[in-house]
Amino acid sequence: MLLFICKPVATYSQQAYSLSLDELFRLGTENSLRLQASRMEEVIADDKEKTAKTSRLPGISIGATTGYIGQSTVFRKGLAQPVHPDLPDWSHNYNVEVTQPVYHGGKIHYNIKRASLEKEIATLNSTNSEAEIKLLLLRRYMDLFSLYKQRDVFARNVEESTRRLDDIRRLKKEGVVTRNDELRSELQLTNDQLACREADDDISIVSQQLDVLLGLDESLLLQPDTTLLYTAVSLEDYEIYVLQAYSNYPELQIARYNTKLAENDIRLSQADYLPSLSIRAANTLSRPLSTTMEDMFSNNWNIALSLSYNLSSLYQNKHKMHEAKQYVHLRKNREDQIRQDIRINVRSAWIRHHEALDRVQALLLSVRQAEENYRIVRNRYLNQLSILTDLLDASSVRLEAELQLTNARTEAVYSYYELMRSCGNL
User: What is the pLDDT of residue 7?
Assistant: First the structure.
């Protein structure tokens, strides 16, 4: 009969690499393409703020024109007696103009404030993305714990199934058991070997996925820090986590800044009702003289105050103001929605984590009971006091209990970080 051999993971030509949780988060955030895009948006928002601030500075323009002057015709009497005065053939004009805004109804100030708020939102979006990425990486990291435990359990089952098959073959030669028991034992051994091989392959696949996300060599076989499963943490009351979420949760902070943006837009709309005042200074060097058309340069400079008021804003801005006010109400409504979600999510995560901790304690007892049950049934079978089916069932129960315990431990860790995420502490 052909039997498979469960080879160690090291035989897959992959180098083992111990990966701690801190390193997982550090590499994950450093190499995340999504986070890189968020940081680019931060840089763009910062540039927008700097651009908005430049609107306080004076506008400076320079210009130069030159051109050919065509022959002009002067009529001395109506359209009669035309004459062609002697004029220069070329004209030149050089000018410098400086305009300093003094008052634009607050538009400059509130545009700068808007850019500053958008910059804060971009930063918070990066923080929110970072927390989501950490949680996704942690899920894959927890999968490695379960897969390594599966592999260890299946490898041990292969050894026990091999010993059991040897015992059954010995008993068969003595005429104590039948060929049916031998066939079922061979089948169980084959299944255990296949399960062990699948666990090895799953470990390799998950490791490669994390290697890519963390920017590591894809051939590295990642090994999680097992002490994480046994690290105890102290939990606070539910209301404390809710208060933390109200202060730290990125999406709620983003909603608050969006409300401030909407309120800022109201002030921008109000600025349209106000006049604009600027100081203008200019200097012009030109030839020929504009009055006598003599072929000489003349230089002129002037300083002026420019005051303007857009009368059409009295009727054009009415609906824009109403729209801006409705946006404020909409943003505040969004804040209230997020607060509701926070209470729901924090409560759910808080309960789930306590549930996971209780499950770990319950399954610790189940594993001890399953071990004892398997030992008793195995001894009874070897003494012909039970059948092979009972022994295989006891082995399956023990296997399931051990895997459930590892899954419960990983879920306890993951649910704790979900709680941290829901209150903005991840």
Answer: 53
- Does some domain include residue 62? no
Bigger pLDDT: 121 or 289? 121
Residue 318 belongs to domain spanning: 9-57+105-274+313-422
pLDDT of residue 10: 47
76 within some domain: no
Interatomic CA distance for residues 425 and 407, integer angstroms: 24
Per-residue pLDDT band for 294 (boundaries 50, 70, 90) equals: confident
Residue 415 covered by a domain: yes
Q: State percent of the chain over pLDDT 90.
A: 23
93 domain-assigned: no
235 falls in which pLDDT band (50, 70, 90)?
confident
Mean local confidence (pLDDT), 171-198: 80
Decide if 166 contacts 246 (C-beta within 8 A): no
What HEC string does the chain produce?
Answer: CCCCCCCCHHHHCCEEEEECHHHHHHHHHHHCHHHHHHHHHHHHHHHHHHHHHHHHCCEEEEEEEEEECCCCCEEEECCEEEECCCCCCEEEEEEEEEEEEEECCCHHHHHHHHHHHHHHHHHHHHHHHHHHHHHHHHHHHHHHHHHHHHHHHHHHHHHHHHHHHHHHHHHHHCCCCCHHHHHHHHHHHHHHHHHHHHHHHHHHHHHHHHHHHHCCCCCEEEEECHHHHHCCCCCCCHHHHHHHHHHHCHHHHHHHHHHHHHHHHHHHHHHCCCCEEEEEEEEEEEECCCCCCCCCCEEEEEEEEEEECCCCHHHHCHHHHHHHHHHHHHHHHHHHHHHHHHHHHHHHHHHHHHHHHHHHHHHHHHHHHHHHHHHHHHHHHHCCCCCHHHHHHHHHHHHHHHHHHHHHHHHHHHHHHHHHHHCCCC
Q: Does residue 5 surpass a pLDDT of 60?
A: no
Which CATH number belongs to the domain containing residue 394 in this structure?
1.20.1600.10
